[in-house]
Structures are given as C-alpha cells and as structure tokens.
Amino acid sequence: MSIRNLDDLLAEGVSGRRVLVRADLNVPLDKETGSITDDGRIRAVLPTLTALRDAGAAVVVCSHLGRPKGAPDPKYSLAPVAARLGELLGADVAFATDTVGEAARKAVEGLGDGQVALLENLRFNPGETSKDEAERGAFADQLAAFAEAYVDDAFGAVHRKHASVYDVPARLPHFAGRLVLREVEVLARLRHEPDRPYVVVLGGSKVSDKLAVIEALLPTVDKLLIGGGMCFTFLRAQGHEVGKSLLEEEMVETCRELLARGEGRIVLPVDVVAATEFSADAAHDTVPVNAIPADRLGLDIGPRTVAEFAEAVGTARTVFWNGPMGVFELAPFAAGTRGVAEAITTVKGFTVVGGGDSAAAVRALGLDESSFGHISTGGGASLEYLEGKALPGIVALEQ
C-alpha cells in the first residue's frame, strides 16, 4: 500500500505543529440518558492520539456522530465523547461547540504542545456530506486551515466521500493513522491471501445489505455460514415456510441462484429459536427449519446450528465474521451469537470480527476481545473493501 503512515509523520517531527486527526467517534448513546454505551471506537484511536501527543503535536480531532441533517442537533453532540476521551487520555480535552466557527478557532488556537481539542460533530455542517464538490471543498478548506498535517484514523468512515475524509487530504500533507493502517493490512490479507480453510460467518437482517459481499466472497471461501435475519430468505429459497420471520420476498430467487452457485459451500441453519413476537418476554421454542410455525418468527439460530457452525469454524485457518446470528440484544435470543463467537475464539488461525453489530456483540456479551485476531471498527467499510470497491478515504491517502 503506497500510503505514508503515522511513523512517517513522526519521523518528520510534529513538535509545535498542529495535526488534524479524522477519528471515528461514532459511538452508541443511550436514548434516555445520552451516555455512551460502548466506547470501543474511542479506545481504538488512542494509540494514534497518544503517539502524536507524546511527540509534542497540538492535536485537533474531528468526527461525526449519527446522522444529523446538516445542522446542530443536541442529541448528536460530541460533548459526552469529549469527556470520555479526556478520561481515557488522562488529560483535559478542549471541546469546541461548533465545527469551524468561533468556538473551534479559539479551541484550536489555545492548544499547546501535546494538548488535544475535539471539534463538534462534522455533520452539523452541510458541507461535510454534500454531493456538491464546491460546498464540500469550502468546508474542507476551513478544516484544513486548522492544521499543518492530516491523519486519517477513521476506518469506519473511509467508504464515504465526505469533506473530512476525501477533500481535506488533498489540502494537507496526509498520513494513515495506526488504526487505518492495521485495518487495511488485515482486510488485504483476507481479500488476497487467506490461509485455508477460509470460513466466513455472515449474519444481520437483510440479504440485500450483504448481497455484494456474498457475491464477492463466494468464489474465494471454503464455507459461508449464514445466520441472522437474512437466513430466512435463503431458507425460503430452499422451499421452507418461515412464518412471520423477516423475509425479503424479492430476494428469494437471488438466494436460490446463490445456493446453486455455492456448490454446497453455503451452510444454512438447521434449527431456529421461534418466538410469538419480537420481545424478550415472548414465548419461544427451538424448532427445525422445516417446521417453523406460521404464527412465529425466528429470532436466533438454534443449538444444533450452533454446533454445526462451530464444527465448520473449528476446521478453519482463517475466519471472517460479520453480523450477529440473532437478536443478541434480547437475552433469550443471544445464545446463537454467543455460541458462534465463542467457537471463533478457539480457532488456531487468523480471526477477524467485521465491525458494526458484531464488534458490539463481542463487548455486550462480555467476550474477551483479545481472543480474536482483529476486531474491525468499520462494518460497512470492511464489507466494501472485501467487495473490491475503491474506498474514497483510502484513495485520498494514496494520492
């Protein structure tokens, strides 16, 4: 990969210089309290921030959070992130209450060597996500004016053609942070030279969301294990009735074609946990996939499926997992995700958790993160990289 990285920047010297770091601090917040429920993405950028601070840089951090509509929205403020970042760094983090306005300017100008400021949510400014290049460029000009160098450590956003990801690198000397570099190295290994057997575990809600990655992976994998809500469209393609389970009727024929092309490499559940409703209190039973009651919906894979998936994973030298096996947020339907995740932790080879809900599940279920070879911070970016797409943020760093 022909990208200059953080070590290259540190070798040039950053003491007394301002460095703009694009981080991915898009953490989940509790809807009632606004508190952070999973700080994994904040922790992921700490090595880059710490290296810059220790080298004497004045560090300006920017990020998005959620999907505000190009204007300030208190529920998407990065204020709680600034507080948590300060706790983790063990140092005060100056928080600017705007992105490129007066508050941002004062916060940046007030930085001393080794100090950190966090700008307010980038998506509060319409220029961040604008499809108009002039509008996006104007916002990028304002961001770039805050610094003398740019570091992208927001792998979860590199698949977006946004001002802070794509346009700012064209205006400053640019470098990949520790996290971005590691992510690309790991995913390149999966895409180009996985040790075999190579087993992929895919979950999540919809086949349509994962269709491109399934088509990209199918020629390269030894086994493709499919769970989550998306499995019911595949089961319907096999001729099974799925009751009230999630079903994409328009994708059934596509799934039938994929099963034919998969030549036995696509492995589907043999039993599921079927409930009367989408609720932790709902009555539920484990049933074979050919006997799902008409008035029930599948919310998890069953124990026989967990055992079969675990056996397949156990033979692997490389495993990529993206997407939960069921509604793990509800305790009665978490066993499938937990069982498969625990099986992956026993693999002797290289294991990758593909970000998003999978990474959240690892932490929510209390699993040891160090038991996995790599936990990605970018679900969508990971999938698009494996699909073979050019990611705008990576393209910008290569230029």
TrEMBL record:
What EC number(s) would the UniProt record show? 2.7.2.3
Q: Where in the cell is it found?
A: Cytoplasm
Main EC class the enzyme belongs to: transferase
**What residues does substrate bind to?**
24-26, 41, 64-67, 123, 160
Q: Which Pfam families match?
A: PGK
Q: Which PANTHER family does this chain map to? A: PHOSPHOGLYCERATE KINASE, PHOSPHOGLYCERATE KINASE 1, CHLOROPLASTIC-RELATED
Hey, which family's this protein in? Answer: Belongs to the phosphoglycerate kinase family.
- Kindly provide the name given to this protein in its UniProt entry: Phosphoglycerate kinase
Which organism encodes this protein?
Answer: Plantactinospora endophytica
